[in-house]
Amino acid sequence: MNLIDTYIGQVGDNLPRKDRDDILKEIRSILEDTLESRSLAEGKAVDEAMTVAVLKEFGTPKKVASAYLPARYLIGPRLYPTFLLVTKAALGIVLLVGIVTTTVTLFQQPMTIDAGVQYVIQKLMEMFGSMLSILGNLVFIFSIVEWAMSHDRTEKDGSWDPRSLIGKENRDVVKPWSQVPDIILTMIALLLFNVFASRLGFTLNDASGNPVFFPALSGVFYRYLPWLNLIWILSIILNLVLIRLGKWQTWIRWSQIALDICGTVILVLMVTGPSIIAEPAARLASLGSAGAQVAGIYSGIAIGIKALLIVLIFVPVIELIEYGVNLVREKGLAE
């Protein structure tokens, strides 16, 4: 086996089996043409020294093979700036909340210096673990979005139609970026309320000096959580399908309308029903002024959350109107 055959064989070892034969034929043809041109230019027959020189110019087998492989990213250049922004914001929020809650506890609870230092170290370790967990989950979230964007069918199968730039088809075309914020925010909601929700709250010492944790969310919230999870997961799947198809279709619009209706119903129930914020007033009253302050914080949060839920109700309502208009327009154009 000569040097060219060995080189081609090693290039093939780094290529997928599906396209290997065609790619190797192309590389061999390029190599032979290059050697022939070099031989004519130098006025001598192809020898080992000339072959070695040409192969050095081409590069290692792995380098040559990489030119025929698609770019492989866990998080690609398109998403990386957004990933950095979201990561900094999420980790910053965790750090800020940890510092505030730790500071409040230190000032409200009488502690010795040793106990205070031990408490701070414990909270720092908890914050570090939470930040690592958030970072890992964000990488997982963005890698899924990267996968969906890299499989955009309109680019892969050549189905893009230039006529989609004008007229009614332009309204149906979906840019992958347009769905990325929804996917990321929905996955963050899944992560926050299923992993960290139970950690939201205050820790105060009782009369005996034992720490007591007061969760921020009431049991009522966890009755809604399975339904919220179902809506969020279906929404993520729908957005990933939309990115992959590259355009809106009637069944996707109807599916989105159904999800928005379900989400609106749950929001209305959360507003009109019992508070999803815990009301540990009776337990907190026994802890003196510190307990009264935390009870006041919980009451303020409950009012703020209810107001936020009322505002959020209008978001799916506006989307429902938009989807309805689009469906009527599509029906009119079809007729």
Describe the protein.
The chain has 335 residues and is mostly helical. Helices cover 74% and strands 3% of the residues. Helix 2 packs across helix 3, helix 5 packs antiparallel against helix 6 and helix 11 runs antiparallel to helix 13. The chain is elongated and about 100 Å long.
Question: What would you say about this model in short?
Answer:
By secondary structure, the chain is mainly α. It is 74% helix and 3% strand.
**Radius of gyration, Cα only, in angstroms?**
30 Å
Q: Report the biggest beta sheet as strand number plus sense, adding barrel if it closes.
A: 2 strands, antiparallel
Secondary-structure class:
mainly alpha
Number of domains: 3
Task: Describe the global form.
Answer: elongated
- Please state the average pLDDT score: 76
Give the terminus-to-terminus CA distance. 68 Å
Sequence stretches where pLDDT stays below 50 over 5 or more residues? 152-170
Number of strand elements:
2
Order of helices and strands: HHHHHHHHHEEHHHH
**How are strands sequenced across the largest beta sheet?**
1-2
Strand content: under 5%
- The percent of residues in helical segments reads over 70%
Question: If helices are DSSP runs of H or I spanning 4 or more residues, what is the number of helices?
Answer: 13
